[in-house]
Design goal:
Number of strands of chain A: 11
Helix content of chain A: under 10%
Number of helices of chain A: 0
Shape of chain B: globular
Structural class of chain B: alpha+beta
Order of helices and strands of chain B: HHHEHEEEHHEEHHEEEEEEEE
Distance between the termini of chain B: 33 Å
Radius of gyration of chain B: 24 Å
Radius of gyration of chain A: 15 Å
Order of helices and strands of chain A: EEEEEEEEEEE
Largest sheet of chain B: 12 strands, mixed
Largest sheet of chain A: 5 strands, mixed
Structural class of chain A: mainly beta
Oligomer: heterodimer
Low-confidence stretches of chain A: none
Strand order of the largest sheet of chain A: 1-11-6-3-4
Largest interface: A-B, 41 and 42 residues
Shape of chain A: elongated
Strand content of chain B: 35-45%
Number of strands of chain B: 14
Strand order of the largest sheet of chain B: 1-4-5-6-7-8-9-10-11-12-13-14
Mean pLDDT of chain B: 89
Strand content of chain A: over 45%
Chain lengths: ~130, ~350
């Protein structure tokens, strides 16, 4: 698990945002949900891509003590010279940003190797 | 079977006599006549920089400067490349890129620079070059259908059963497996797509390696243009021209070199073939009687031999003789090597 996110039980639905600020890269993937024993509970809570950044993951009552796995990547195009990629991950509840960062390995040079985008968050309702 | 043995027995003495290594075979097909170099600056320098920094962020610039300049003196054999317009384009999405040809040209343009030492001298060469792929119908980013397919593949990766199984290594393997076959298919379909490239480069002599206005002297400038197009699925036709103007200190030194050529490349299951011809003109502005021209011809046939994990390459070609190289001639060469010289 990479990050535990505390959610307010009264503040409405939660979503994840996976965005590329300057996005001329081919990025896509899916988010999967796991139960508190870390076993797959729902395959494909939502999909993301360069055009589709915000993915609703549920309301607080349904996602207490759940894990969410970001599982996707960036396809390379044999860039010579290499090009830059940078992906920002955020978790929002309503308009409030609960968490925002560029995870390790989510920025760098893209040349002739596909880039995996993997991250696990745990949601805990307060 | 008998015919094969007979063929080998007849050809073997000749092959043994003419056997060369891969570099000799490669020399016959001369890439410098065909196409715009990926880094025009490096093409002008006598030695390609050994250390090239890919500048992608402002931080890369601050890291590169000390590598290149030390106390006002230029270091040798260092280089950089950068896509300068990506910073001027502003936030651009893949969709935007696919719809606007101007953004595609800006994104693909590359500025490069480098330095090179001069033997037994404190002077150094400094070069800058710019390459603009104006048309590239095989640009993978520009194809909406291809990118949509890649994205669908990434969105279809199976979920690991448990989080313990969700490792980065597993994701990398799944990504490679999902994407690489589609990429190969795209390259096979677009390897000979229409392309038009132009390039320009300039080289200066930096006296005593001092980066001061009065120490930097013009040396040569080069321009390149190349156009390629498909001839059916298996053939590619390339026409190319280049010219270099050279500043000469003596009347007997070359002041320009131009070339124009064409190359035909073909890929079949049993062999890959490249046939090329170029005409080269060498000019002496101060002494026109020294002007000369010569021909270059090259033909390479590569036969893959999967059982031996390599290719057998047969080449015939070279340059016609001239005043500056009286020994130049057309020769037959062959060699067996692991990695093919001709690639899509």
């Amino acid at each position: 698990m990479d990050k535990e996110i505390k959610i307010d039980k009264d503040k409405g639905p939660v979503s994840m945002v996976i965005e590329m600020p300057s996005g001329i890269q081919t990025m896509a993937g899916r988010i999967h949900r796991y139960n508190k024993d870390e076993i797959l509970e729902k395959e494909g809570v939502g999909i993301f891509s360069g055009n589709l950044a915000e993915i609703p993951i549920g309301v607080p009552a349904d996602i207490n003590e759940k894990y969410f796995l970001v599982w996707g990547g960036i396809a390379h195009h044999n860039d010579k010279p290499p090009t830059q990629y940078q992906v920002v991950l955020s978790v929002k509840q309503g308009d409030t940003i609960l968490f925002r960062e560029i995870p390790e390995g989510w920025s760098g040079q893209l040349s002739n190797k596909n880039i995996p985008l993997k991250y696990i968050i745990k949601t805990v309702v307060q | 079977m008998k015919q094969t043995i007979l063929f080998v027995l007849i050809i073997l003495p000749y092959l043994a006599w003419a056997q060369s290594d891969k570099a000799d075979v490669e020399e016959v097909v001369n890439d410098s006549y065909y196409g715009v170099p990926s880094s025009p600056a490096f093409e002008l320098l006598p030695d390609k920089p050994s250390e090239v920094t890919h500048i992608l962020t402002p931080k890369d610039i601050t890291a590169f400067v000390p590598v290149t300049i030390d106390g006002g003196e230029l270091k040798s054999n260092v280089g950089f490349d950068i896509r300068p317009f990506t910073y001027l384009m502003g936030p651009t999405s893949l969709d935007d890129y696919q719809q606007k040809k101007s953004k595609q040209i800006l994104w693909r343009s590359v500025l490069s620079g480098g330095t090179s030492a001069i033997k037994d001298s404190k002077d150094k060469y400094l070069a800058l070059g710019f390459r603009v792929p104006i048309i590239d119908k095989g640009d993978p980013r520009a194809s909406k259908a291809y990118n949509d397919d890649l994205m669908t593949r990434m969105q279809s990766l199976s979920a690991p059963g448990t989080l313990r199984q969700a490792t980065k290594e597993k994701l990398q393997a799944a990504l490679d497996s999902a994407l690489d076959s589609k990429r190969k298919e795209f390259i096979a379909e677009n390897w000979n797509a229409v392309r038009l490239d132009v390039g320009i480069g300039n080289m200066w002599l930096v006296e005593s390696s001092k980066l001061k206005a009065d120490s930097i002297k013009q040396n040569r400038i080069g321009v390149w243009a190349a156009y390629s197009r498909p001839l059916g699925k298996n053939l590619q036709f390339i026409v190319s021209a280049k010219n270099a103007w050279i500043k000469a200190d003596a009347d007997t030194l070359e002041t320009s070199r131009a070339s124009a050529g064409a190359r035909l490349r073909a890929f079949f299951k049993i062999a890959a073939i490249s046939v090329e011809y170029a005409k080269v003109w060498s000019g002496y502005r101060h002494e026109n009687s020294l002007d000369e021209d010569w021909d270059h011809f090259g033909c390479l046939v590569e036969i893959p031999i999967p059982k031996l994990k390599g290719v057998l390459g047969f080449a015939y070609g070279g340059d016609s003789s001239r005043r500056e190289d009286k020994d130049a001639k057309f020769e037959f060469k062959y060699s067996f090597y692991a990695d093919a010289l001709l690639e899509k």
